[in-house]
Amino acid sequence: MKEGFLFGGGLVIVGLALELSVGPVVWEAFAWPVNGIVFGGFLAVIAAMFWLREKVWAFQFLGTRQAAIPAMVYAVVLTIIMGVTRQTNLSPGSFPKGEGSLWLNHMLTFWPFVLIYVYVTVNLGLVILRQIRAVATNLSQITSNLSLLPHLGLFLALTAATLGNADMQRVKMITAIGEPEWRALSEDGTVKEMPMAIELKRFIMETYDDGMPKRFASEIQILTESGKSIEATVDVNKPYKVDGWMIYQYGYDTQMGAQSRISTLELVSDPWLPLVYTGFYLMLAGALLLLAYTRWSYKRLVPIAALVAVALACVSYLMPIIRSTNLVPALQSPWFTPHILVYIVCYSLMGVAAVIAVYSIIRHQSSIKLVDNLVYIGLTFMTFGMLFGAFWAKEAWGHYWSWDPKETWAAITWLSYLVYIHYRQMPHHKPRLALWMVIVSFMLLQMCWWGINYLPAAKETSVHTYAASF
């Protein structure tokens, strides 16, 4: 894998040179139709690389595990840097050239970060084409290429979400009772005229006995450009869709509380969402197939089930949020239970895998096959948890992935376990090193689970900190 690490290191150096010479990546420049052209061109380049792979060694190499593992390792390291630094909302135009402190505070426009993820995506694309060709040549290869669906789903989600971000519009509109409003404030502070007018008819608020908000919603009337009049209720976790825009309940006059005569709505347009969701659904289908085809040793099933049950009890005890009856409105979602449940199962399985890995290292015994099964099942549930969380976030806040500190560490953990799985499939891997990968990955998982609450980068920025609400 030396070539893979050298190639990744070269990309980091090239990225730093670009950062110093042209400045950060300006994602706004990829608005339609530029992003459509780039997407088509990117697919064409990957197809050409696959076609020429027998003639060009580099193209053949980029579609191998020897390239995939270093690419993911670099992605993990750079994403960890992102996870421990406070990310700012500075626009690229406000970056002073050569001021390195801002590079790490805005990783999404940092060239090395972007190029490494392009490295990962190119590898994904080449692997997908190889798997499609194998299945098309011989249908019996389907079971040996079960990862085709999650690979294809991840490729679509990464490319569509990245390139489509420039076309996403997010604006906030302050509506008042009896006053139709058609103007909204965009993220850069400019006023935008909307293709609809919205009038607040009534603001609804319910509270718990301690005065904390239990529910807040807005009864609104929408007048579209076509002259259609629509009456709707916009609730937290229950947005309303009209003419390609999703309308979310965002805020209200907190001083007036239930007597508020204004309501702040967020309007989101995301034309690339269907393609991103297609990727999510393919990942879910692929995870289910991998779960179904995982082989278990039934002799070890009972003790492992007992260990998982103990771990489940510990996780449940350490997560009082599960037993709370005073949930803030954002948590009152149908996605709450499945999202938490699959993550509890995931944490439990990964915890058992880490314990077995430590035991195997100390006693110099090989239980790597058992660890494999636990990690495969755990990663499947981790994938479910991430995607359920993405669907939930889209309903609650209008974005399925915002690189919130919690989401960032979820990506770090997910990638680190993928490194382990890909390394285990190498023909000349070292089992002891693989076991250490499981231990390190579980340590990273602790940051995602509870360590995030102690990171300065997450304080006052993460929407996943609900501790004050219970």
Mean pLDDT: 87
Please indicate the percent range of residues in DSSP E strands (runs of 2 or more).
5-15%
Number of strands: 8
Order of helices and strands: HHHHHHHEEEEEEEEHHHHHH
Instruction: Report the major sheet.
Output: 8 strands, antiparallel
Give me the Rg, rounded. Answer: 24 Å
The percentage helix is: 40-55%
User: Class by helix and strand content?
Assistant: alpha+beta
- Outline the low-pLDDT stretches: 90-100
- Overall 3D geometry? globular
State the separation between the terminal residues, measured CA to CA: 48 Å
Number of discrete helical segments:
13
Going across the major beta sheet, what is the strand order? 5-4-3-2-1-8-7-6
What does this molecule look like?
There is one protein chain. The chain is an alpha+beta fold. 53% of the residues lie in helices and 15% in strands. It has 13 helices and eight strands. It has helices at 2-21, 34-51, 57-61, 65-84, 100-103, 111-137, 148-164, 273-293, 298-318, 336-363, 368-397, 405-424, 431-449; strands at 169-176, 181-186, 191-207, 213-224, 229-235, 240-242, 245-252, 262-269. It has an eight-stranded antiparallel β-sheet, covered by helices on one side. Strand 2 (181-186) and strand 3 form a beta hairpin. Helix 8 runs antiparallel to helix 11 (368-397). The longest helix has 30 residues, at 368-397. 35% of the residues are buried.
Features:
about 475 residues, alpha+beta, 13 helices, eight-stranded antiparallel β-sheet
